[in-house]
Amino acid sequence: MAKHIIDSHAHIFPDKIASKASVNIGNFYSLHMSFDGSVSRLLAEGEKNHIDKFLVQSVATVPDQVRHINDFIACQVETYPDKFIGFASLHPDMEDPASEVERVISLGLKGIKLHPDFQRFAIDDKKAYKLYEIIGDRLPILIHTGDSRFEYSHPRLMAKVLDDCPYLKVIAAHFGGWSEWDESENVLCGKNVWVDTSSSLYHLSPEKAAELIERFGEDRVFFGTDYPMWDAADELKYIDRLPVTDEQKEKLLWKNLCGFLNIDMD
Ligand SMILES: [Zn+2]
Q: Do 256 and 224 meet the contact criterion of CB atoms below 8 Å apart?
């Protein structure tokens, strides 16, 4: 058992839409959802699995939702300051993203989440570069990466953005390429990028996952469940089976994210 556990990739929703949101995500990916997307269920699962903290976020599929979502996330962080680290949503078609970035920083949110496939923009779209310039190195950006059905989030486009914007602190979710893990390994390993394990361990053998950790860098990989999709109990069993050292597991499960976001946890 690791000293601490942080789930670096959890989606949360207000209670009145949590079940529907979870069903919609499941339909989008044709994957079974373990839970509804409620805060109470996330906290209960965390309790059960000894997860100390969660990086929580949500995605605005239309520009109008951005402020509401960011207020909701900030409110949850304020309610559970020891449990939640909040990332904000932006939308490439929104008006005045610069002032929303200022606002979310003042609300205490610690990063930005973007989802090219839900938000229908290519990672290397001009509109996206505008966001990258505004965000700069002030906040890290968690970007959903990879979906073999769409071009928007292709790892190759992510590689281009990393080359063009070396100042960005990007977490390319799902080992940098959900359903495109080989592509991701080919074009993203060795770059200035961080990745998470979410929605990937069900597909990768323990040996392959260990190889990806080695190739991306043992300091650059974060544990994540993609709540409400996967059950943390199963995800932690996968981690347990990885042929990596105990110290590498501690890094993966909490130390790396603490370092990345300057969180104090001993
Ligand atoms: Zn996500």
A: no
